[in-house]
Design brief:
The complex is a heterodimer of chains A (about 375) and B (about 140).
Chain A (H helix, E strand, L loop, with lengths): L12 H18 L5 H14 L6 H12 L7 H13 L3 H5 L4 H6 L2 H13 L3 H8 L6 H10 L5 H13 L1 H12 L2 H4 L13 H18 L4 H15 L4 H23 L5 H4 L2 H31 L18 H13 L6 H26 L1
Chain B lengths: L9 H5 L8 H52 L22 E3 L3 H15 L10 E3 L5
Parallel strand pairs in B: 1-2
The chains are: A mainly alpha (about 375), B mainly alpha (about 140).
């Protein structure tokens, strides 16, 4: 009989703390509906992996080895990119290519945070992996930190996905702080630009892959899978594959991705001062991404006749489509006839491309 | 130091190890990385502009050919186009018979046809729009 309860005595305080963290993630997913598809599996996985002598450890380790580790080329995040690519409609961006620059500007947080992490004392690989939290893009963050061999992947994932979920809370105060009421009231023309032709939509993913591949060869896997998904969507002859990629494939990978991340959420690895530092640095990354996007819009307004609402710059972080929605909603709060959605979505999808390019560049620089 | 040979090589001068960087090195790395992302996206934006320009000029050429072909028929009617000035893309004119359809519905239908076929409204001719009752 005593044998049945023998496991109780092996429970550590750190493991209990991890159960609580897992519980908080599940609470945020269910009660607050914050990235539930990822926070819930991650939360449950954190509990699973931190049970004493857990029988789930082996299977989660196997999933990690085959699905996320670079032994098998970061299979899950890359395959997930096919689904994400199939979900993204680049039309708003193709209609107004200028929006591309905002996506680029909003990657500033990645590089700024990388510097900051380096100053704090993380080695270059870990600093770069922490910086990539600012990509606001889970699969990119996983792929980069795995490829660079960071030992903080658990903390990086929790920070990346939590802040993505917290975009509606993190961004509005920064946007308000960086803009005046007059700027937030700027209306933008929703009729400008001609809808792109089908051929343009088909050529776009192919050419982007080639351009990025030539400059940053390490980004080819990331951008290539994203653009492959988009090509399936836009070609017009693979509708059933496109739907499968958007729904079945993306959902299937998401289920396993969240729970597999838990392999790096063991109490002894996760409960460190470094984790707290990483979570703090992740917040910096999001703040400076938002700040840089807004500032670029302000600078462009100095030289442009057609004024840009600086709030759309904040959508350049690739938390898609949450960030675009936040900006649109803030525009409506200021003026109920100010519809910024088309522009903010354009900026948001450009952020998606930019974050993948930034991730690839970091790999090219530091691998 | 292990370094990726594919890139420009500038980083070999910027840092010499994988240890934490000092402030000037870190800032330089960040600046170069950020500017590279910006310039790559600017190149992609230029590419989109270029493609759009090429397609719109091809479209204009083929449109002018179509106009030449239909001009003898069009000239039989006293229409504004015959004055020689082409209508702006956002405008259209002519007569349209509406049977059991109100004007706003007709406008929506015409816009939908234009959007779906990718033909600007100023190059579409609608003779009539008729409501088809369910049997």
């Amino acid at each position: 009989m005593l044998d049945l309860f023998a496991n109780f005595s092996t429970v550590t305080f750190q493991q209990i703390a991890m159960w609580i963290i897992g519980g908080i993630l599940i609470f945020l997913a269910i009660k607050k509906e914050m990235e539930p598809s990822l926070l819930l599996p991650m939360g449950f996985g954190a509990i699973l992996i931190n049970l004493p002598n857990s029988g789930a450890q082996h299977i989660i380790d196997v999933l990690f080895k085959f699905g996320i580790s670079n032994d098998f080329g970061e299979l899950m995040p890359l395959v997930l990119f096919i689904g994400i690519g199939a979900m993204i409609d680049f039309t708003p961006l193709l209609t107004n290519p200028k929006l591309m620059l905002f996506g680029a500007a909003a990657q500033f947080g990645i590089f700024f945070t990388m510097c900051l992490a380096s100053f704090v004392g993380f080695d270059l690989h870990d600093a770069a992996s922490i910086g990539i939290i600012g990509a606001a893009d889970g699969p990119t963050a996983i792929a980069v930190s795995m490829e660079l061999g960071s030992k903080y992947i658990g903390a990086i994932m929790v920070a990346a996905y939590s802040y993505m979920a917290l975009v509606p809370l993190v961004q509005p105060p920064i946007i308000k702080l960086c803009t005046t009421k007059k700027e937030r009231l700027i209306r933008m023309d929703n009729t400008a630009g001609k809808a792109p032709s089908k051929l343009t939509k088909i050529l776009f993913p192919i050419v982007v892959t080639i351009i990025v591949g030539l400059v940053a060869p390490d980004a080819v896997a990331l951008i290539g899978f994203l653009m492959f998904g988009n090509l399936i969507r836009e070609c017009g002859v693979l509708n059933s594959l496109s739907e499968t990629a958007q729904k079945v494939l993306a959902n299937l990978i998401t289920i396993f991705l969240g729970i597999t991340i838990a392999a790096r959420m063991r109490a002894e690895e996760f409960l460190t001062v470094d984790t707290l530092l990483i979570i703090g640095l992740g917040l910096f990354a999001f703040i400076f991404d938002t700040f840089a996007g807004i500032m670029l819009a302000k600078i462009m307004n100095l030289f442009s006749k057609k004024k840009i609402n600086p709030m759309i710059g904040a959508a350049g972080i690739s938390a898609f489509p949450m960030s675009a929605r936040v900006v649109h909603k803030m525009g409506l709060e200021e003026d109920n006839q100010n519809f910024l959605l088309m522009h903010s979505i354009g900026v948001n999808v450009s952020g998606q491309i930019a974050s993948v390019i930034a991730g690839g560049l970091i790999l090219t620089f530091f691998r | 130091m292990k370094f990726n040979p594919h890139f420009l090589g500038i980083f070999t001068d910027i840092y010499g190890s994988y240890d934490a960087m000092d402030i000037p090195k870190a800032l330089l790395v960040a600046l170069v990385g950020f500017l590279t992302v910006v310039s790559m996206l600017a190149v992609i934006a230029l590419f989109i502009k270029l493609i759009s320009f090429i397609f719109s000029s091809i479209e204009k050429k083929s449109a002018s050919k179509v106009e030449t072909l239909i001009s003898p028929v069009e000239n039989q009617k006293p229409r504004a186009e015959s004055t020689g000035s082409a209508l702006p893309e956002t405008e259209s004119q002519g007569e349209l018979e509406l049977i059991g359809v109100d004007e706003p519905t007709a406008a929506i239908l015409m816009a939908l046809v234009s959007y779906r076929t990718d033909i600007p409204l100023n190059r579409l001719i609608f003779r009539s729009i008729r409501l088809v009752e369910d049997e």
